[in-house]
Amino acid sequence: MKLSITLKLFFALLVTSIIVIGTMAVAVRYSFQSGFLDYINKVEVERLATLATFIGKEYEKHGDWQFVKFKRGMWHRLITPHVHSVKGRLFSPANTGNEEIDKAEEKKKMSEPTLDFTDLGLRLALLDLDRTFVAGNRQFGSDAVLHPIFSQAETVGWLSITPSTVLTDTVDIHFNEQQNAAATLISIISVFFAAGLAVLLARNLLAPIGRLVVATRALTAGDFGIRIAVTSTDEMGQLQTDFNSLANTIEQNEHARRQWIADISHELRTPMAVLLGEVEAIQDGVRKPDVHNLKSLHAEIIRVNQLIDDLYQLSMSDIGALAYRKEDVELLGVIEEVITTFIERFRHKDIQLSVEFTECQSILIFADAQRLHQLFSNLLQNTLRYTDPGGRLEIHCEKNDSMVTVHWQDSKPGVSDDILKRLFERLFRADESRSREKGGAGLGLSISKNIVEAHDGEISAHHSTLGGLWFKITLPLASNRINKSNEQKIKRS
Questions:
Q1: DSSP secondary structure code for residue 94 in this structure
Q2: Under DSSP, is residue 439 helix (H, G, I), strand (E, B) or coil?
Q3: Helix %, strand %, coil % for the chain, to 5?
Q4: Maximum CA pair distance of the chain?
Q5: Cα 53 to Cα 74, 103, 175, 199, distances in angstroms
Q6: Percent of the chain surpassing pLDDT 70
Q7: Of 21, 62, 230, 302, most Cβ neighbours within 10 A?
Q8: CATH architecture observed for domain 235-318
Q9: What is the secondary structure of 250-261 as a DSSP string?
Q10: Alpha carbon 424 to chain centroid distance?
Q11: pLDDT value, residue 473
């Protein structure tokens, strides 16, 4: 039988409560019995004071212990109920000769409690001053309690009583049974109360989990808009918040996936439609298969091939399968090499190019030179494609002890704040001025971002002081890698 988590929690709380209640009941019962016995023994010791006073009086009459030594009958008469207490004084019944006085005294004695120590007889013993047995129980042990017997303010002997280990008095036994019955009843009531409380706690504590289970099933079924109301600020509330964040992320990713598929389909459909139209026109004889038409077909094939290659590069980077052969590379040399391949196109579009690396001469970074070439080529291509003719591109750098930052600023047109936040999204291109008609599939900046992050760097986009875009590319210096390696060696040693 498969138990639900509610039943498991209920039984866990109930069993825990039963164990706690049972343990407390046993402990209370033991504590009560032990304490009650201690109380009875203390009362018995206090009673000995009266008997000791009476025996002390008897000792004064006889002058020694011979009157009772080894005489069971005399010892029995000493502890039997014919002795009375009057205002703290002990005496035996005696007539005064005056009938009225004798009757008054007799009446007074009858109203006073009778001193009866026969119930203690089996545990009582009389010892002399040297604690040698005189009368009573010879089997008194080392745990016996001694009470002094005085005669004329001097100790003349001892009363010994062995503490009781079990209840013998009927009243005491009845009282103990009543307490045990009351404790048992209270324990049973407590168990039922704990069971009811366990039911309430199990339901209340697991209600949010139940809602979470329902929401999770809805999420797995494709309802990405499902959300859970956050009902607390504890761990359960944090779990509900995390679930909502997860659902929101999945919903956004699903939207991005659908948009990604639609964008890729659109990007591939456009050149394929052109190719299909060109080929059909040649087949129908509308257009001739001359050099001009073949060049147009070749351009569209190159565009499709570039899109496919960009998608491949991006997917390989996402799964971490893109190969990087890193070594110490001079940053300025890579940038100058890339610029050389673009210089004629910049002149053709009348875009002025300015490079200032005075602060960063001979800087070495630990990187893959080919990937850096791809990174800066994408940025130059982005500037060349979208910057207005007669514009400007400024590249300069700054460094500190561990990082170098390349600043990449071009002139108008710029983009809005909303578009600026989305520049590194895949297949995203700003509408209006930075549009599809100017070429590109919107993957260049995404690939550039992956390349920078693969080199433990950062890239960010800002509004340029020249009116266009300002990219900040931060990369770690090669010396920083060496320092980190030395730090790790020191920690290991």
A1: -
A2: coil
A3: 60, 15, 25
A4: 167
A5: 17, 26, 31, 64
A6: 78
A7: 21
A8: Orthogonal Bundle (1.10)
A9: HHHHHHHHHHHH
A10: 37
A11: 92
Residue 93 backbone phi and psi in degrees, to 5 = -60, 135
| Non-local CB neighbours of 407 within 8 Å, separated by 6+ positions | 394, 395, 396, 397, 398, 470, 471, 472
**Residue 228: phi, psi to the nearest 5?**
-115, 135
Contacts of 4 (CB under 8 A, 6+ apart): none
pLDDT in tens, 305-321: 777 776 777 677 666 65
Residues 6+ apart with CB under 8 A from 132: none
The pLDDT assigned to 483 comes to: 55
State residue 163 phi and psi, 5-degree precision: -60, 145
Question: 């400024």: which residue's tokens?
Answer: 394
Those residues whose C-beta lies under 8 Å from the C-beta of residue 92, and which sit 6 or more positions away, are 82, 83
pTM, 2 dp: 0.47
Angle in degrees, CA 431, 437, 440, rounded to 5 = 85
Is the preceding omega at residue 413 within 30 degrees of 0, hence cis? yes
What does the alpha-carbon distance between residue 365 and residue 243 come to, in Å, rounded to a whole number? 42
| Closest to 40 (Cα-Cα) out of 187, 204, 165 | 165
What contacts 325, CB < 8 A, 6 or more positions away? 368, 370
Query: CA nearest 388: which of 408, 411, 419, 409?
Result: 411
**Architecture of the CATH domain 327-491:** 2-Layer Sandwich (3.30)
Strands 352-356, 392-399: pairing kind: parallel
Q: Return the residue matching tokens 């009157």.
A: 67
235-318 and 327-491 share one CATH topology? Answer: no
**Partners of 410 in beta bridges:** 393
Confidence class for position 437, pLDDT limits 50, 70, 90: very low
Beta bridge partners of 319: none
Would you place residue 105 in the very low, low, confident or very high pLDDT band (cuts 50, 70, 90)? Answer: low
pLDDT of residue 136: 82
Rounded distance between C-alpha atoms, residue 63 and residue 151, angstroms: 9
Residue 127 host element (H or E): strand 124-128
Structure tokens at 328: 């110490």
Which value, in Å, is the radius of gyration of the alpha carbons in the chain?
A: 52
392 strand-pairing partners: 352
Domain boundaries, the chain: 1-90+110-223, 235-318, 327-491
Q: What is the pLDDT of residues 190-208, one digit of tens each?
A: 888 888 887 777 777 777 8
Query: Pick from 71, 46, 67, 82: which is nearest to 159 by CA?
Result: 46
